[in-house]
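S1.2 Input.
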Amino acid sequence: MTWKYGNPVQIEFGVDNFDKLPELIAGRSYALVTYGEPFFDELTQRLEKAAGAATLIIRDVAPNPDYRLLSEQTKRFATLRSQPDIIVALGGGSVIDSAKVFAAASGDFEKVKTYLEIQKGAERLSAVPIIAVPTTAGTGSEVTCWGTVWDETSGKKYSLARPSLYPTHAVVDPRLMLGKPRLLTVSTGLDALSHALESLWNVNGNPVSANHAVFAARSILSVLPKLAANLGSIELRTQMAMAALFAGLAFSNTKTAIAHSLSYPITLRYGVQHGIACSFSLPMVLRSVQGAGGLCEDSLKQIFGPDLRCGADDLEQFLTTLGISCNPSAYNIERKEWRELIEDSLQGERGRNFLGSHDRLREASDSVRLPLAQTA
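S1.3 Output.
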């Protein structure tokens, strides 16, 4: 067996680590990418007081960053007298993904658009260093080198993937995650669970990513229900932030697989939140990989026990307890469309990472064990 693992991001993990940002900025000029909400306004004021004024602040980041908005935001960088030395991304996955676009565009979104659509022009992309400060526990974008970009007009999703887009630093401060509402907490937590599991049934899996994934998945299965019932616990927020970080470290080397490939059209067509769209199919996929053997099955048994069929049932019950139905019809997806989505997803880039049997996945897709119950 041959494998490799690498991740260049320096991680600063701990409560109140936000205060380390001025030291990491170290007097350099910086642009700040964040949200335009009171919580983030207060953090912005704290940062500027300690590190100096930002040369540019992008406050209007939206969920699922789209061509149209990203193009307009990128133009603001072009108006600067000089480009910032670094970009500080303070927020959730959409903020960090947007920052990666700005780091690669250097004021010209068309360069990024061309690269996304025809995979040419990599030499024209820039690489402004990024300091990522996640305020949710889920996306793992602070330790990966890609960002998700949406073209809602044409109904397409792209991944901007460049080794130079790994953030230089990930500042993970669980205190910044306090106060997040239940649905966001659950959705981002399930995104992290999906990252962990998707890195296991993956042709790119390796022993290091598998160790990270097992730790992450076992932690999330234990912690997330408790956190959903006690959103103000800094201890549980810290445990969840750690689990999400390790899930990010796992899939930073493998990318995702079939559940994510399925999720993208579901988010585009039906507006289902990403973390839910990529997680409600996890029990189905788990049922399909029984007997896969090797590192994948060994790792999954460390998480779910020796009987993966029972493990899949337990995972479905876990999701249902959190209010997530595993029945596609709960998201207005009819049986015929569900089968078509699976066939299309198997052909997609992330679908091709799936190491399981396509026939067994199709068979598993025809079995919905639990009723609709609750929905997202």
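S1.4 Remarks. The CA atoms of residues 8 and 166 lie 7 Å apart.
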